């Protein structure tokens, strides 16, 4: 097994044409805080997280996933990872060095198997964060990101062999076989997951709420804003977490969640869950039944940024 030098998920960076509308949604409706901005770029933080930011929005003519950023424990681990990637023939988008984005730090960028830009960084400045109070319905932190691809088995294996992610659980359909693999880099059930789709794209970004009360209150606020509720409110079996999925103004799927399972690494064995069992999708039975229409919403648009590093 490849040793993991990755500690956690830092941030997800999105490029979008309708920048002002997207920024208003993530701050006024979704509950993030703008901590820095320049012409056509904003860095958004979660009040409960020490991460400098968890979402970056960048104005662009094309909608794309700019990058997914993970943390490492030290600059030397970043260098070690770079050596490992080069030895495996992975194409670097930026060699290890000082980062010029908000919070600075030391990191590298590379393309994963499917062409997404991945960043791994260390020594990034933290921000002063705070305890989220009872009934305060804003995100505590970034929870996880799920990515679409045509061969999730191959992608998940690449992340295990190349980056040291561990398989936690798999969703499988009797006719289609595996449809989603949940992968972890720490005791959290998953920081990233890979879903079967018609093309490579962002599936969804998930945000952790303080608890079920705050999860429901936040979901209600988003519904009242007019944003489309795609699926929810329910509780998954894999991860044992609650879920409410919405579409942001650029039709990216975003999720409020809470109570994502934390594992005992020494005793955990991956499960294979049958998606044709309604309890797999929703233990509570309160959400709208999963359907082809729900799946289609999360297929997202074809990503035009594969194997093309973002300009920032």
UniProtKB/TrEMBL annotation:
Origin: domain of life:
Bacteria
Question: Which Pfam family is one of this chain's hits?
Answer: Glyoxalase
Q: Which Gene3D superfamilies match?
A: 2,3-Dihydroxybiphenyl 1,2-Dioxygenase, domain 1 (3.10.180.10)
User: What CDD domains does the record tag this protein with?
Assistant: BphC5-RrK37_N_like
Q: Which residues form the VOC domain?
A: 8-123, 141-259
| UniProt-listed InterPro entries | Glyas_Bleomycin-R_OHBP_Dase, Glyas_Fos-R_dOase_dom, GlyoxalaseI/FosfomycinResist, VOC_core
The protein's name is: VOC family protein
Taxonomic lineage from the root: Bacteria, Bacillati, Actinomycetota, Actinomycetes, Catenulisporales
């Amino acid at each position: 097994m490849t040793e993991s030098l990755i500690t956690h998920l830092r941030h997800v960076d999105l490029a979008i044409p309708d920048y002002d509308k997207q920024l208003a949604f993530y701050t006024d409706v979704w509950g993030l805080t703008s901590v820095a901005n320049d012409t056509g770029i904003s860095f958004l933080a979660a009040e409960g997280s020490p991460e400098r930011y968890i979402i970056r929005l960048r104005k662009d003519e094309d909608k794309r996933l700019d990058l997914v950023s993970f943390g490492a424990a030290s600059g030397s681990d970043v260098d070690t990872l770079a050596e490992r990637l080069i030895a495996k023939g992975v194409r670097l988008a930026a060699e290890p060095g000082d980062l010029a984005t908000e919070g600075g730090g030391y990191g590298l960028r590379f393309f994963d198997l499917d062409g997404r830009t991945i960043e791994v960084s260390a020594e990034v400045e933290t921000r002063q964060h705070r305890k989220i109070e009872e009934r305060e319905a804003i995100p505590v932190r970034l929870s996880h990101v799920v990515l679409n691809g045509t061969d999730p088995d191959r992608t998940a294996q690449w992340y295990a062999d190349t980056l040291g992610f561990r398989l936690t659980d798999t969703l499988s359909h009797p006719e289609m076989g595996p449809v989603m693999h949940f992968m972890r880099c720490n005791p959290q059930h998953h920081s990233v997951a890979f879903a079967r789709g018609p093309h490579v794209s962002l599936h969804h970004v998930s945000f952790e709420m303080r608890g079920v009360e705050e999860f429901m209150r936040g979901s209600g606020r988003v519904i009242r804003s007019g944003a489309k509720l795609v699926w929810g409110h329910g509780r998954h079996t894999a991860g044992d977490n609650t879920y409410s999925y919405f579409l942001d103004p650029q039709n990216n799927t975003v999720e409020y969640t809470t109570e994502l399972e934390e594992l005992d690494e020494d005793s955990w064995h991956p499960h294979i869950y049958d998606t044709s069992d309604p309890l797999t999708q929703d233990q509570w039975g309160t959400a709208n039944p999963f359907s082809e229409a729900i799946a289609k919403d999360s297929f997202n648009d074809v990503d035009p940024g594969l194997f093309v590093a973002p300009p920032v």
